[in-house]
Fold Pimeloyl-ACP methyl ester carboxylesterase.
Amino acid sequence: MHPQPPLRTTHVAGNPTAMLMFDRWGQFGRPVLLLHGLLFDRTMWWPAAAALAGPRCTVVAPDLPGHGQSPPRDDCRVEDLAAQLAVLVHQLGLHRAPIVVGHASASRLAAAFAAGHATHDLVTVDEPPVDATDVEDLIAAARPGDVPEHYQPYARPRTDPALLCAYGSWLHQPPARRNQPALAGRAGGRPPAGPFAHLTDPDAFAAQLRELL
């Protein structure tokens, strides 16, 4: 009989002026930090996180400022957010370097985390082109319409252009281009292909990440 996967719990990190809401699955093992792209929120990771979570890892998925349940900020410089996320991971008390996964525009945040803080592995998926700098471009690059219908509720972007004002320093940045080297060939099969691979086939995506633990 297989044990049940850990249940999702919701927590608050930071302080009233720099608050992040995040979900957590599990209490032990290596931390896996899942970062959603701009205009989306942490719920995009729920199916893959539930498939991945187990005794070998603790999965963490925060809402970035202004997204989901995290309050907005005037300035969301990537280095500042990376530092706050490093504190969040440290406070989990797991004493292991995390695997950091960045979706779409959050690939820049994931790369900044890896550049400044101990990181076991860096994975980026669905990185947008450099010229994707407004709401329409970011949504078109992410292609949420390609997500299977039953997972569509997890891939609904916000369309408010004001949301991007605090993230101006993220735009016009070169992509990290780490998705293929990080995932290819590690799970005994082909990595999930196409946009939103973590929603197209959450079990396969989780299996790829499990090979990195």
